[in-house]
Amino acid sequence: MLLISLMALLGVACDRESEIIGSREVSVAYLWGLAHEGSTPIKEDLILRGYVTLNDVLGESSRSFVFSDESGGLEVKLDAANIFTFLPLGTEVTIHCSGLYIGREGGTLALGLRPTSIYAVDRIPQEQMLNYIVIGEYMPDNLPPMRMAIGDMDYDDMFRYVMVEDVWLIEEERGLLWCDVDAATGEYISTVRHFTDGSDTLAIVTAPTAIYADWEVPTYRARCIGVVDIYKNMVALRLSNHQITPMEE
User: Fold this and answer.
1) Is 132 exposed, middle or buried (0-12, 13-18, 19+ CB in 10 A)?
2) Lowest mean pLDDT among 12-21, 97-106, 153-162, 239-248
3) Is 117's pLDDT higher than 80?
4) What is the DSSP string of 190-215?
5) Is the confidence at residue 139, as pLDDT, over 50?
């Protein structure tokens, strides 16, 4: 049933793409240049082409996915659950931006519908998704992360898909879980763990919805892959599909 549904999505998406004329392909960086504080409408058919670099398969995001190209990334707000079933990590995606809004949210960029509340954009209903999003092939081998040193990561890299190598958990946090527990509610909370390369410190933030929230943080020398994010006004890495592996692998 899932395969049939996905094939139906792809068929409609291909029809949608063939109907578009007079469009202009741009980069995520270009949209960053258009965005102002709050929300900005997109009134021409600007096209983005890139890949899914973060989804909800392991609970690392909720009702959204991260789209990245070579210039950077943004969060696409989507009113849907189990997004990974039709947008797995590495899926090629084309977004037709006409009629959508871009919004600055806490130092990051979001793409969605005209805002009707306090948020910069509203979520795109799943039944309207194919008006804007063309689902392409699943191409994980075409999704190389950018190698980046901790010291080079800054606010200009928001939602960029990156790899940081040869880092290890700081001594003070060894034995801890990925997420702390709120003493009042007993629920997991968003938590930062700190890794070092011997000179600089990398903050890795984990959402309480992640299925590995109660896993112990590994202490081996690691390679970490994810998207650059901002958490409490600091630059952090959000693991994508829990891609943290020993350096020897």
Assistant:
1) buried
2) 12-21
3) yes
4) -EEEEEESSSSEEEEEE-TTSTTTTS
5) yes
Strand partners, 227: 161, 238
CA distance 52 to 88: 7
Coil vs helix vs strand at 72: strand
Given the DSSP bridges, would you call strands 201-206 and 39-41 parallel, antiparallel or unpaired? unpaired
The alpha carbon of 226 is separated from its chain's Cα centroid by a whole number of angstroms, namely 8
The H or E element that residue 34 is part of is helix 28-34
Average pLDDT, integer, range 97-111: 91
Give residue for tokens 């890299």.
Answer: 157
Instruction: Evaluate if residue 132 carries a pLDDT over 50.
Output: yes
pLDDT per residue over 26-51, tens digit each? 999 999 998 877 899 999 989 999 99
Residue 249's pLDDT is 60
The b/e string for 192-222 (b: 16+ C-beta within 10 A; e otherwise) is bbebebeeeebbbbbbbebebbeeebeeeeb
> Alpha-carbon distance 132 to 231, whole Å?
29
Identity of the amino acid at 10: L
- Domain annotation for the chain: domains and CATH numbers: 2-142 (2.40.50.200), 146-246 (2.40.50.140)
Separation CA 111–CA 48 (nearest Å): 11
**Residues near 183 by beta carbon (within 8 Å), at least 6 away in sequence:** none
Are residues 126 and 62 in contact, defined by beta-carbon separation less than 8 angstroms?
no
Residue 19 identity (one-letter amino acid): E
